[in-house]
Design brief:
disordered N terminus, 2 helices, about 240 residues
Length: about 240
C-alpha cells in the first residue's frame, strides 16, 4: 500500500507478512511509515497555536504471534504477544507548562503487549492484557505516559438475557511537568467501569452504566482531575430487530 499526499508528495509505504503455523498459531511481521500533518488548531489556535510546526513522521515495526485454541463452541483460549519499535520525528506535542504546541525532535519507543482472551462457557468470557513501554528521546522527556499498564474485561450473560460487562485498568506512575523544566511523578491509579443491559422486548434494551465505580481520585494529565463516579441510564432501540 502506498499513499501519496497531494500537498507534500510524501510517500507512506506499508508492508506486512502473515504466516500460518502449526497448532493454530499465526505469526505476523510488518513495517509502515505514517505522516501526521498539523491541524489548523495546532497551527493557528489563539491560545496554543504554533505556525512553525513540522509534520510528524513515524516509522513503525511490529512482530506478533497469536494462537486460538477452541476446546468447544464457547470454550477457548486466545493468547497473543506483540513486540514493537517506533522511530518518531517531530512529534506534535502540547507543552504542559506553556500550553503551546511544539515539535519534539526525535523519539524512539519500544515495548511489549500481551493479551489473553478466554471463554469458559456460553455465559462467561473475558480477557486480560499487559503492556510495557519504554523510550529514548532527544527532546524533553515524554510526559504523562505510563511505562506499565494492566487491563482486564469480564463479560457475563445471564439466562434472562441480562448482560454484564466489567472493565478494570491499572496505570503505573508517570512524569508530569509541574513548572517549567521541573518534573514530578503522578501516582499510579486503578479504575473500574461497568454496565448492565437487560432486554425488555424484541427491540428495546434498558442499559445502566457506571464509570469509575470505586470513585478513584486520579489525574491522567497534571492539574486536571478526572471525574469521580458517574452513573448513566438509558434505552437502546434496535429497529432492525423489531422489523424481523
Amino acid at each position: 500500500k502506498v499513499d501519496v499526499s497531494q500537498g507534500e508528495g510524501m510517500v507512506c509505504p506499508m508492508a506486512s507478512v502473515t504466516k500460518e503455523l502449526p497448532s493454530s498459531i499465526t505469526a505476523r511481521i510488518g513495517a509502515s511509515r505514517s505522516i501526521s500533518f498539523p491541524t489548523l488548531n495546532n497551527l493557528y489556535s489563539r491560545s496554543s497555536g504554533n505556525p512553525d510546526l513540522e509534520p510528524e513522521v513515524t516509522w513503525k515495526y511490529e512482530l506478533s504471534i497469536e494462537q486460538f485454541r477452541a476446546f468447544s463452541t464457547h470454550r477457548y483460549l486466545n493468547p497473543e504477544i506483540a513486540v514493537f519499535y517506533n522511530d518518531i520525528r517531530n512529534q506534535i506535542d502540547k507543552s504542559a507548562w506553556t500550553g503551546i504546541y511544539r515539535n519534539l525532535l526525535g523519539i524512539n519507543t519500544w515495548g511489549v503487549e500481551t493479551t489473553l482472551g478466554w471463554g469458559a462457557n456460553r455465559w462467561l468470557s473475558g480477557s486480560v492484557a499487559f503492556g510495557w513501554l519504554d523510550w529514548s528521546t532527544e527532546s524533553p522527556i515524554i510526559l504523562e505516559t505510563p511505562h506499565y499498564k494492566i487491563s482486564s474485561r469480564l463479560n457475563c450473560k445471564l439466562p434472562l438475557g441480562t448482560r454484564i460487562n466489567l472493565e478494570f485498568s491499572w496505570f503505573s506512575k508517570r512524569q508530569a511537568e509541574v513548572m517549567s523544566n521541573y518534573y514530578e511523578y503522578l501516582p499510579d491509579y486503578f479504575v473500574a467501569h461497568g454496565n448492565i443491559t437487560q432486554p425488555i422486548s424484541s427491540w428495546v434494551d434498558v442499559r445502566v452504566e457506571a464509570r469509575n465505580i470505586f470513585d478513584a481520585n486520579y489525574e491522567e494529565e497534571y492539574g486536571y482531575p478526572c471525574e469521580g463516579r458517574v452513573i448513566l441510564g438509558g434505552f437502546n432501540l434496535n429497529f432492525q430487530r423489531a422489523v424481523k
